[in-house]
């Protein structure tokens, strides 16, 4: 589970060393990133629906949201708008996602094996404090960078008149997506902070009572 | 003659909110709600959820105290359902919105398509027809709300009205925008497509109305109990042979017709969402019927004959 993210992480490091610059980074991780992100969708639902209700107290809706946003960023933004692939913001969110996912899947794996090292639990519920904002910044900057190119090329947009009487402006849509981060991100963030307090203090009590 | 004592506790804190002495054994929950309301004026009866178990279902108004599994000192739990609004009121607001919002677009108010297009009218007859059909649909719904429907629950939570109105009003605006747009393109198959769609639309509206009348007649004497609806002499009601909720079937049919009539993707999307929502409601209703009636007709499916 976490091995696939290790693959990306190793690929990251290798590419950086080999090419000396992280701008061509995207090309080396592109295929695994896309493959794994899309695979993540299926996997998330499988995991959540089947194995984890008893083990992990995370909200299905929030996780689904997270996976959706990642698939969106990977396919609908970074893949579709070639010009943003050399942006630093892409590196920012890929790094944030990679570290988060390695920890998260280690957490799930160890939980399933009923042998969860405190370090993993701590890492999962603490590192997000930095990684979430990092990932969100990377995502927002990437979308923002894509805007002028979308406007110029009319990507994924339909205008009237047409025989289906429908119009869609991808540019406006992206702006709305960016705005939606304002109500959604704090909710996710505070949810994780709340989980942190609950989970880590619970462990403290456990330790004290032993 | 044994008189009961009723204590009502808060469902969460278990704090005693009131203690009613000398309650008659044949008192109904409705009467208890009224007594509770006298002590706590801001919690009117519709807001009160009174239950036997803190996490259980709310007791109905008609339940009688001595028929409940309680001793002569009954412990009941109270939960505040929040501000409530009557179903009739909700429907009236929900349906009046789309009616007038559509007109804003049909008459091309200046703020909609810009000053150059203000108050102009479309060269396509289908646009006028669509306005008539859309308005007819919502006027029919309003009339039914006032004269036909008999609701089993009196109220729903107030916050629902915001959610529901956003949905109905929002979609009405969205689809009206495209249908009445200066750049609207009429259906590809022209008059044939439009006429076919209009006929289907009228048939489905008639069907939907017939079903509503049948359902309303089941509760003619003001009772709130559920009965199995059956087909009548009206051919539109014969759909009851195949389906538990033909009113939803006809409703979806109406919107499909409207989609075909206008050939407009937003209308199609709205139709799809309506279909999903109504399928969920129909399945629910169907399951309730199956649970409550052992002799429920086995040929019936929830919303689509033989399929769904």
UniProtKB/TrEMBL annotation, chain A:
Write out the catalysed reaction. Answer: (3R)-hydroxyhexadecanoyl-CoA = (2E)-hexadecenoyl-CoA + H2O; a very-long-chain (3R)-3-hydroxyacyl-CoA = a very-long-chain (2E)-enoyl-CoA + H2O
Any GO BP: fatty acid elongation
Q: Which GO terms describe its molecular function?
A: very-long-chain (3R)-3-hydroxyacyl-CoA dehydratase activity
EC number(s) on record? 4.2.1.134
Please report the record's description of how this protein sits within the membrane: Multi-pass membrane protein
Pathway stated in the Swiss-Prot or TrEMBL entry: Lipid metabolism; fatty acid biosynthesis
Q: Keywords in UniProt for this one?
A: Endoplasmic reticulum, Fatty acid biosynthesis, Fatty acid metabolism, Lipid biosynthesis, Lipid metabolism, Lyase, Membrane, Transmembrane, Transmembrane helix
Per the record, its GO cellular-component terms are: endoplasmic reticulum membrane
User: What InterPro entries does its record include?
Assistant: Tyr_Pase-like_PTPLA (IPR007482)
Q: Which residues cross the membrane?
A: 55-78, 90-113, 125-150, 170-190
Keyword check for Lipid biosynthesis: yes
Specify the signal sequence span.
Answer: none
Subcellular location per UniProt equals: Endoplasmic reticulum membrane; Membrane
In terms of superkingdom, the source organism counts as Eukaryota
Record's family?
Belongs to the very long-chain fatty acids dehydratase HACD family.
Function, please?
Answer: Catalyzes the third of the four reactions of the long-chain fatty acids elongation cycle. This endoplasmic reticulum-bound enzymatic process, allows the addition of two carbons to the chain of long- and very long-chain fatty acids/VLCFAs per cycle. This enzyme catalyzes the dehydration of the 3-hydroxyacyl-CoA intermediate into trans-2,3-enoyl-CoA, within each cycle of fatty acid elongation. Thereby, it participates to the production of VLCFAs of different chain lengths that are involved in multiple biological processes as precursors of membrane lipids and lipid mediators.
Q: What is this protein's record name?
A: Very-long-chain (3R)-3-hydroxyacyl-CoA dehydratase
Q: Which organism is it from?
A: Burhinus bistriatus
Automatic annotation (TrEMBL), chain B:
Where found, per UniProt? Endoplasmic reticulum membrane
Q: Name one GO cellular component term.
A: endoplasmic reticulum membrane
Query: Where would I find the 3-oxo-5-alpha-steroid 4-dehydrogenase C-terminal domain in this sequence?
Result: 155-308
What topology in the membrane does the UniProt record assign?
Multi-pass membrane protein
Indicate where this protein is primarily found. Answer: endoplasmic reticulum
Q: What class of enzyme is it?
A: oxidoreductase
Protein's pathway = Lipid metabolism; fatty acid biosynthesis; Sphingolipid metabolism; Lipid metabolism; sphingolipid metabolism
Task: Give all residue intervals belonging to the TECR-like N-terminal domain.
Answer: 5-80
Look up the record and give one Gene Ontology term from the biological process aspect.
very long-chain fatty acid biosynthetic process
The record's keywords, sorted A to Z, are: Acetylation, Endoplasmic reticulum, Fatty acid biosynthesis, Fatty acid metabolism, Lipid biosynthesis, Lipid metabolism, Membrane, NADP, Oxidoreductase, Phosphoprotein, Transmembrane, Transmembrane helix
Entry's EC annotation: 1.3.1.93
- Gene3D superfamilies reported for this sequence: Phosphatidylinositol 3-kinase Catalytic Subunit, Chain A, domain 1
Its function? Involved in both the production of very long-chain fatty acids for sphingolipid synthesis and the degradation of the sphingosine moiety in sphingolipids through the sphingosine 1-phosphate metabolic pathway. Catalyzes the last of the four reactions of the long-chain fatty acids elongation cycle. This endoplasmic reticulum-bound enzymatic process, allows the addition of 2 carbons to the chain of long- and very long-chain fatty acids/VLCFAs per cycle.
Stored PANTHER family: 3-OXO-5-ALPHA-STEROID 4-DEHYDROGENASE, STEROID 5-ALPHA REDUCTASE C-TERMINAL DOMAIN-CONTAINING PROTEIN
Protein family: Belongs to the steroid 5-alpha reductase family.
Protein name in UniProt = Very-long-chain enoyl-CoA reductase
Name its species. Answer: Burhinus bistriatus
């Amino acid at each position: 589970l976490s091995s696939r993210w290790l693959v990306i992480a190793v690929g990251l490091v290798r590419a950086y060393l080999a090419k000396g610059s992280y701008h061509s980074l995207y090309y080396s991780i592109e295929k695994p990133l896309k493959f794994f992100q899309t695979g993540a969708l299926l996997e998330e639902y499988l995991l959540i629906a089947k194995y984890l209700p008893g083990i992990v107290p995370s909200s299905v809706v929030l996780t689904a949201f997270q996976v959706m946003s990642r698939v969106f960023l990977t396919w609908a933004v970074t893949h579709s708008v070639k010009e943003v692939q050399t942006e630093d913001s892409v590196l920012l969110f890929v790094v944030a996602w990679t570290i988060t996912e390695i920890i998260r899947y280690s957490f799930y794996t160890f939980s399933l094996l009923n042998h969860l090292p405190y370090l993993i639990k701590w890492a999962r519920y603490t590192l997000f404090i930095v990684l979430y904002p990092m990932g969100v910044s990377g995502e927002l900057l990437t979308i923002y960078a894509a805007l002028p190119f979308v406007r110029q090329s009319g990507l994924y947009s339909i205008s009237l008149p047409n025989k289906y009487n429908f119009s869609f402006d991808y540019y406006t849509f992206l702006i709305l997506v960016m705005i939606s981060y304002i109500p959604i991100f704090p909710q996710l963030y505070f949810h994780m902070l709340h989980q942190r307090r609950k989970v880590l203090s619970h462990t403290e009590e456990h330790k004290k009572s032993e | 003659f044994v008189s009961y004592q009723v204590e009502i506790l808060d469902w969460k804190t278990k704090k005693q909110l009131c203690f009613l002495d000398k309650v008659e054994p044949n008192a109904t929950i409705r009467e208890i709600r009224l007594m509770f309301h006298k002590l706590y004026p801001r919690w009117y009866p519709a807001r009160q959820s009174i239950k036997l178990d803190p996490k259980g279902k709310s007791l109905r108004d008609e339940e009688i105290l001595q028929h409940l599994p309680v001793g002569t000192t009954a412990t009941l739990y109270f939960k505040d359902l929040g501000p409530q609004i009557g179903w009739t009121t909700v429907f009236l607001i929900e349906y009046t919105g789309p009616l007038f919002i559509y007109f804003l677009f049909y008459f091309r108010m200046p703020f909609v398509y810009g000053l150059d297009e203000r108050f102009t009218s479309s060269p396509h007859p289908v646009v006028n027809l669509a306005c008539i059909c859309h308005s007819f649909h919502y006027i029919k719904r309003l009339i039914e709300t006032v004269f036909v429907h008999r609701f089993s629950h009196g109220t729903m939570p107030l916050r629902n009205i915001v959610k529901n109105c956003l949905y109905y009003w929002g979609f009405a605006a969205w689809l009206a925008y495209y249908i009445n747009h200066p750049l609207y393109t009429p259906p590809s198959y022209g008059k044939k497509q439009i006429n076919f769609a209009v006929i289907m639309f009228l048939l489905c509206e008639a069907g939907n109305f017939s079903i509503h009348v049948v359902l309303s007649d089941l509760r003619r004497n003001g009772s709130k109990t559920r009965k199995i609806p059956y087909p009548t002499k009206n051919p539109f009601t014969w759909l009851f042979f195949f389906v538990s909720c033909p009113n939803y079937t006809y409703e979806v049919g109406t919107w499909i017709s409207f989609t075909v009539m206008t050939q407009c993707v937003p209308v199609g999307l709205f139709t799809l969402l309506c279909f999903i929502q109504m399928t969920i409601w129909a399945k629910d209703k169907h399951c309730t019927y199956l649970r409550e009636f052992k002799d429920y007709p086995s040929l019936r499916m929830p919303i689509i004959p033989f399929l769904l």
